Amino acid sequence: xxxxxxxxxxxxxxxxxxxxxxxxxxxxxxxxxxxxxxxxxxxxxxxxxxxxxxxxxxxxxxxxxxxxxxxxxxxxxxx
Length: 79
Fold this sequence. Notes:
Layout: H1 15-18, H2 22-37, H3 45-52, H4 56-68
Helix pairs in contact: 2-4
């Protein structure tokens, strides 16, 4: 069963998202979808790479960009 999650329509004008490349923005939206499917938690990195159909070596720098943009929180317990 598919589920939905809310995304503010003003994301279109948010300075954080406007500074992202198209590729990083797409990956961010896909991570939001994967997180929604995983009950609000970002899946383990290897699983996330498979879900996003991205090689782990290419996903890591994108995640680092999203962390730097403060669109993903990163703590001791993970993302």
